[in-house]
Design brief:
Elements (H helix, E strand, L loop, with lengths): L4 E9 L2 E8 L8 E10 L1 H7 L9 E2 L3 E9 L1 H7 L6 E7 L6 H4 L31 E4 L3 E5 L6 H21 L7 E5 L3 H12 L4 E6 L4 H9 L4 E4 L5 H8 L5 E6 L4 H10 E9 L13 H7 L2 E4 L5 H14 L9 E4 L3 H8 L11 E4 L1
Parallel strand pairs: 9-10, 9-12, 10-11, 12-13, 13-14, 15-16
Antiparallel strand pairs: 1-2, 1-4, 3-5, 3-7, 3-16, 5-6, 6-8
Length: 363
């Protein structure tokens, strides 16, 4: 690597990742540079990689980000309330503060916010807007959460992304609470996080589904509190839920599978006036048939779910700290920056004999 250059895994087109070098940007008064410790890889990265979601190529992937402040301007120090050397989680953006979304408290949907890990091109300076890199540029509207050194980088990246999403989807948007029957479709990292969140609020019974190839993930779900696991390749989800609930069905269904077939099942698995939370991505242009009368007659609520917000992150940090929950047990594989493409393909189930529960990139 040339002096003063930063390496980053850059998606230059569908199925094409290059390790490119970018000039280390000058840090303005309201900017900062983050030295990346670890970046998490999730199913969205797989869809980005394969072109299922349109992107402004070239882009630096990686939206689950933890690192230490390497350099920071005086204005940015006041904006973010952090100093050089601090370990931080970077999650989301404050937004512009003026648009309708920001004014209603939904900065996650601000159209002018800085999007890390895919939605901002790396073609123009300061280039570094993704976590699969040695360093990242911190824009003024980025949201940084300081975490103490007692929390490892690996735990922090899970709390800041996966675990916070689980709380947002299962509890905030799903409404899971004491005694509920909760069905989670998909045993990957997000499904595991939803399992933790549902059990943390006292759900009476949590059931997690997966496929035969998900055997290790399903075992992890049990370790994280699932009362039952279902192999959908061998068992009938609706039959089991119906039998266990005496025909009442699930109070809350969280679908993080990204499977059209699972979505149809999720709708039917919810009780009358129950809630179905859809948080898995299917890919742009994918249409899924739904028997709409089932929603009308039963008054089931279907709730789309994006990423967790700042409140979900704060709640998750406190919950994990209070319980000492071993979130890092989820991490099964760690890859180098040079192996980013292989890592993403492995997460997508495309590498024989390699199917991570949770994979990280360590630059």
């Amino acid at each position: 690597m040339r002096r003063g250059m930063i390496r980053a895994a850059t998606l230059v087109g569908p199925g094409r990742i290059e390790i490119r070098e970018y000039p280390r940007p000058e840090v303005p008064a309201d900017g900062a540079l983050l030295h990346i410790e670890v970046g998490g890889v999730c199913g969205t990265d797989v869809k980005y990689f394969h072109g299922a979601i349109p992107l402004p190529y070239p882009v630096i992937l990686g939206h689950e980000i933890v690192g230490r402040i390497a350099e920071i301007g005086p204005v940015a120090r006041r904006i973010h309330d952090v100093a050089e050397g601090d370990r931080v989680i970077l999650k989301g953006s404050r937004g512009c503060g003026h648009c309708p979304d920001c004014r209603r408290g939904s900065a996650r949907f601000c159209r002018t916010k800085t999007n890390y890990g895919g939605q901002v091109s790396s073609a123009a300076p300061p280039h570094l807007f993704g976590g699969f890199a040695e360093e990242l540029y911190v824009a003024p509207d980025a949201v940084l959460t300081k975490v103490g050194d007692q929390v490892s980088a690996e735990a922090a990246v899970l709390i800041g992304s996966v675990m916070a999403n689980g709380y947002q989807w299962a509890v905030v948007q799903g409404g899971a609470h004491l005694g509920d029957y909760v069905l989670i479709q998909g045993p990957g990292q997000q499904g595991l996080a939803c399992t933790f969140a549902a059990k943390a609020v006292g759900a009476g019974r949590v059931v997690v589904t997966g496929r035969t190839r998900d055997v290790e993930r399903l075992r992890m779900a049990q370790a994280w509190g699932a009362d039952r696991i279902i192999d959908v390749d061998r068992e009938d989800v609706l039959e089991i839920v119906r039998a266990e609930t005496g025909g009442a069905m699930a109070d809350v269904v969280v679908d993080v599978s990204g499977s059209s077939a699972a979505f149809a099942t999720s709708i039917m698995a919810a009780r009358r006036q129950g809630t179905v939370v859809l948080a898995g991505l299917y890919g742009t242009g994918v249409a899924t048939p739904v028997e709409l009368d089932q929603l009308v007659w039963s008054e089931r609520r279907v709730q789309g779910a994006y990423t967790g917000d700042a409140a979900a992150l704060d709640a998750t940090i406190r919950s994990v700290a209070a319980t000492g929950f071993p979130v890092v047990d989820m991490v099964s594989h760690v890859f180098s920056l040079a192996d980013t493409e292989r890592c993403i393909r492995a997460v997508g189930g495309e590498v024989a004999g390699l199917y991570p529960v949770k994979a990280l990139i360590k630059p």
